[in-house]
Design goal:
binds flavin-adenine dinucleotide; 9 helices; 4-stranded parallel β-sheet; 425 residues
């Protein structure tokens, strides 16, 4: 192993069982099946690394992940509303290492596409034949005046799960009854299109049951949003005096925030919040930009069959970081893309052409305990884009009975257990 290491650098291999240990990197160069490095061990990267190793055990697969514990975003809104423990969101990489994927816990700091080399923060260099970038999102700190990393300590985004999730939870607990909660929602595209509205619903549930004199305003940079009719009908039914949604055309776009005075400004009004949850505009995780695979939008254009970057050969981008045509940025979609990418890589490394894929996405949202709604669709590559297969898309029925909503809440729970089991179990 080249380069220096901090104490946090840990590499697990199957040889070490599940014990964390500093081990020499496996002799990747000697591997006859080729070397694939995956950066990012979340919904897309963890799935891709594991699936690829299962598809072709001869491929030397290395997963590079900044954190030893993964904290999942789906269901983190329930943590914020006090309905779930954060521990139910957290997973480790022991089983992935048991599957003979080499796991390096260190941020990837640079990529040299010409030399086909990833350099980790501590200086370790990892050569690859194919690289998969799965870094998720970064927040655009330059996009909203007043919203800095320091401001996020008072006005959390909670759009990456972990400390920020717990901060928002604590703030709701501490706020007085009668206070105003503000949630800001960005323009498309961003991670989890229904996420801000699910969060508003579950925070409203918390307010209704614990602080009933309080109000919640959603300031939106859009005029329409995912599952809108279902959400708005449910709000009328469950939270009529709590949630107010302000669309773009009604002046919902936030123009500035001030963390010191807890104010959120639009062109028309200045709101003083007891709790302000700012979900700012986003872009692909920084390593994508450093690797030269992000375009001027901040996201990464890819070929929809293999998820290979259209800007840099031999680098594939999956999950929220990639531009996946009509597919939303969801954990479900990230998982589907990861499997398609793994299958394509197995064929490409073996000198074959990848198959033309079909991908499915389903986004569940929970509006209250026992009240779930869904949107789903199938996608396929058409003229270099992932497009929705005609007639494949649909949402829960608007007039579905209560039992159906209960059933959908159960399905959401089942989906989370299945997908995280597939990744980490
Ligand atoms: C509040 C909320 C609710 C959501 N609910 C749902 C839901 O119900 N259903 C659903 O399908 N989706 C949901 N999502 C969306 C889902 O979380 C994302 O779409 C999904 O996590 C994307 O997967 P990913 O692999 O692209 O990124 P992530 O899962 O975020 O994984 C990225 C990983 O890369 C690592 N990383 C980044 N840069 C580096 C680097 N340089 N070196 C090493 N490691 C790096 C990070 O540490 C992270 O572990 C929700 C999101 C939010 C915010």
């Amino acid at each position: 192993m080249t380069g220096s290491h901090s104490r946090r650098d840990v590499l697990w291999t199957a040889a070490a069982g599940s014990a964390a240990a500093m081990l020499p990197m496996p002799a990747l160069a000697q591997n006859a099946g080729g070397r694939v490095v995956v950066v990012g061990g979340g919904f897309s990267g963890a799935t891709c690394a594991r699936m690829l190793k299962r598809l072709d055990p001869r491929i030397a697969v290395t997963l590079v992940e900044a954190n030893q514990t993964f904290t999942a975003c789906p269901f983190s809104n329930e943590v914020i509303a006090g309905l779930r423990d954060i521990k139910a969101q957290q997973f480790d990489y022991k089983k992935i290492a048991d599957d003979k994927v080499a796991v390096a816990f260190e941020p990837a700091a640079a990529v040299d596409p010409q030399a086909r080399m990833v350099t980790l923060a501590g200086g370790t260099r990892l050569p690859y034949d194919r690289l998969v970038l799965a870094p998720g999102i970064d927040l655009r700190w330059d996009s909203l005046p007043g919203y800095t990393e320091a401001a996020a300590e008072r006005m959390p985004h909670a759009w990456k799960a972990g400390e920020q999730t717990l901060l928002l939870r604590r703030q709701l607990d501490a706020m007085p009854d009668g206070g105003l909660v503000i949630i800001t929602a960005p323009a498309n595209p961003y991670r989890c299109p229904p996420g801000p509205y699910e969060r508003a619903s579950l925070i409203a549930y918390y307010l209704k049951t614990r602080k009933p004199k309080s109000k919640l305003i959603i300031l939106d940079a859009k005029d329409a949003f995912s599952k809108q009719r279902l959400f708005q009908n449910a709000w009328k039914e469950l939270y009529p005096d709590i949630i107010e949604w302000v669309s773009l055309s009604s002046g919902g776009k936030v123009t500035a925030v001030d963390a010191a005075s807890m104010t959120v400004e639009t062109d028309f009004a200045k709101h003083k919040a007891a709790v302000a949850n700012i979900v700012p505009p986003q872009k692909a995780g920084r390593i994508a930009e450093l690797a030269g695979v992000a375009d001027r939008t901040g996201w990464c254009p890819t070929d929809p069959v293999s998820f290979e970057s259209t800007l840099q050969p031999n680098i594939h981008v999956i999950g929220d970081a990639c531009i996946a045509g009509a597919m939303p940025k969801s954990g479900f979609a990230a998982n589907a893309q990861a499997k398609v990418c793994a299958a394509a890589l197995a064929r490409l490394v073996g000198g074959q052409k990848p198959d033309d894929p079909r991908l499915i996405n389903t986004c569940y949202s929970v509006i209250a305990p026992g009240y779930g709604i869904t949107v789903a669709a199938v996608y396929r590559p058409t003229n270099g884009q992932l497009v929705e297969v005609q007639g494949s898309a649909g949402t829960s029925a608007v007039d579905a009975p209560k039992t159906m909503r209960e059933q959908e809440a159960k399905l959401a729970d089942g989906w989370f257990k299945t997908i995280t089991g597939e990744m980490f179990g």
